[in-house]
Amino acid sequence: MIERDLDVPDGVDAVRAVGVVTPQDYHDVVAPMLAAAIREHRGLRILCTVDEAFTGVTPAAMWDDVRLGFGAMRHLAGYATVTDLPWVREMTRFSGFFLPGHVRVFGMAERAEALRWLTELPGELAGVRLQAADGVIIVDIDHPLRREDIDLIAAEVDGWLGEHRELPGLVLHAHGFPGWENLSGLLHHVRFVAGHQRRVERLALVVDAPGLDIAARLAGLVLHPEVRHFPVAAEDEAIRWATEQHALTS
Predict the structure, then answer these.
(1) What predicted TM-score, i.e. pTM, was given to this entire model?
(2) Architecture of domain 127-249
(3) Assigned superfamily of 2-120
(4) Does the structure show a pLDDT above 70 at 2?
(5) Where does the pLDDT of residue 63 fall: very low under 50, low under 70, confident under 90, or very high at 90 and above?
(6) What residues does 172 pair with on adjacent strands?
(7) Would you tell me which of 2, 5, 122, 123 could form a disulfide with 25, CB atoms 3.0–4.6 Å apart?
(8) Closest C-alpha to 18, from 54, 47, 45
């Protein structure tokens, strides 16, 4: 059974799944909810609470879930699952990588945090700093990369390249390898690299993660920038290295 949950802020659509979900639930609750959001031209921000009494969906309901999901996919801004059921948490994380919107899993005690996350989407990077005198852009990353993050980085890079032939250095700083929020973020990153890599002289990866030394060397073989890996404690050294080429030519 799927029930509407009306105790949410404006702009958030919330449902609760308990027992067995049937096609009638999608017809009576989910389809009208999605249709209203699309009609109002707003991105879908969905809070789905999965109760411990939830036991699954019928085969017919699963088909309705897939059918409605494909129809609403391009309108999805954010999807938060609130549950303590391990199998639902893992299934949400796996499927979320292939969805275009932001997907996160929260525990039952974290409902307020889930609502706050939905209402504050898309959120921002911890910081993007441009040292204009040195021609270096420093990006502080504190979460898996999203399309919006890549667009923000690209805007800074393009702003510099609009007045200069090349960007001397790009420094990516993160505590641990952040990865990508979903497939859309990964593909967007690949397109950014393909479109900009020949106009960036040096790329410094300031990350505490095993294997990045080797990854940086391999990347340097196929990309135009000179790529080096630095531990987080050596961020100042990484920035100095990224500015060396500019200092030599200016």
Answers:
(1) 0.74
(2) Alpha-Beta Complex (3.90)
(3) STAS domain (3.30.750.24)
(4) yes
(5) low
(6) 139, 205
(7) 2
(8) 54
